[in-house]
Amino acid sequence: MASSSSFFLLAALLALVSWQAIASDPSPLQDFCVADKNSPVLVNGFVCKNPMYVNADDFFKAAELDKPRVTNKVGSNVTLINVMQLAGLNTLGISIARIDYAPLGQNPPHTHPRATEILTVLEGTLYVGFVTSNQENRFLSKVLNKGDVFVFPVGLIHFQFNPNPYKPAVAIAALSSQNPGAITIANAVFGSKPPISDDVLAKAFQVEKGTIDWLQAQFWEKNGQN
User: Fold this and answer.
1) What is the tens place of the pLDDT at every residue in 95-136?
2) 123 assigned binding-site residue
3) 23-29 LR contacts (CB < 8 Å, sep 24+)
4) What structural domains does the chain harbor?
5) Is 158 annotated as a binding residue?
6) What is the per-residue pLDDT across 8-24, written as a single tens digit (0 to 9) for each?
7) Which of 29, 65, 130, 197 is the most buried (most CB within 10 A)?
8) 107 labeled binding residue
């Protein structure tokens, strides 16, 4: 009987540890932990500001997310509000972004290594999709209209594209991390500093080295994601 009880206790502990291991951000152990960005102490995230000095402004930002943004040469602009812009988000496991799309603009294929994303279309139409991991690499896509919602699972490559050649589109995204991160695939592969060897990339993509050299010579635009 004791052996059986020990087994179930061990199983419960393993389940608890596993749940904590897959959580996107650590759960808070107090009401809030406003980031102290001036502290010299290095931790996973930010140390807490003395709660006696916390005020409402630590949880507020006049972000003007209702106003349109100028888009870049790929036709998008991401205005991200994460812990770097709003200290009160520290340990709360959430951030938000406004995404503007020019006609035929796109938020190019990218991934968030630390967050799941849920996207809501506010204006216009978006063609969106994501690709599952190896070995299947299944492509799942959908056309979204105003008011529609779509989820991009954590870590998977995804994109949004405005198929309308005449009208812009706008979306709001919530992400399950105070600092979701973003890796734009083309920028990372062809715009790294220093550059990845063209021998490596030519072999990986099965193309001539001249093609890789041309791609690496392009200006890889950032669109506001951190």
Assistant:
1) 999 999 999 999 999 999 999 999 999 999 999 999 999 999
2) no
3) 23/93, 24/93, 24/114, 24/115, 24/116, 24/154, 24/176, 24/177, 25/91, 25/92, 25/93, 25/114, 25/176, 25/177, 25/178, 26/91, 27/91, 27/93, 28/91, 28/92
4) 24-181 (2.60.120.10), 184-225 (no CATH)
5) yes
6) 555 555 555 554 445 45
7) 130
8) yes
